[in-house]
Amino acid sequence: MQQPDTQTLIQWDRRYVWHPFTPMKAWMEKTDPPVIERGEGEFLFDTQGRKYIDGVSSLWCNVHGHHVPELDQALRDQLDKIAHTTLLGLCNVPSILLAKRLVEIAPPGLSRVFYSDNGSTAVEVACKLAYQYWVNLGKREKNRFISLRDAYHGDTLGAVSIGGIPAFHQVYEPLCFPVDRIAPPLLPPFAATDASVILDSVSAPQAGNSHWQEDIEHILAQHPGRHAAIVLEPLVQGAGGMLMHPPGTLTRLRHIADKHNLLLICDEVMTGFGRTGKMFACDHEHVTPDLLCLSKGLTAGYMPLGATLATENIFQAFYADPRAGRTFFHGHTFTGHPLACAVALASLDLMESRKTLEHVQKLSAVMATGLAPLRDHANVGDIRQLGLIAAVDIVPRRGHARFDFHWRVGGELCAAMRENGLILRPLADTLVLMPPLASSVQSVSRLTQIVVQSVSTVAEIVRRKQESNGK
Ligand SMILES: *Cc1c(COP(=O)(O)O)cnc(C)c1O
Question: Which residues line ligand 1 at a C-beta cut-off of 6 Å?
Answer without folding.
Answer: 118-120, 123, 152-154, 233, 238-239, 267, 269-270, 295-296
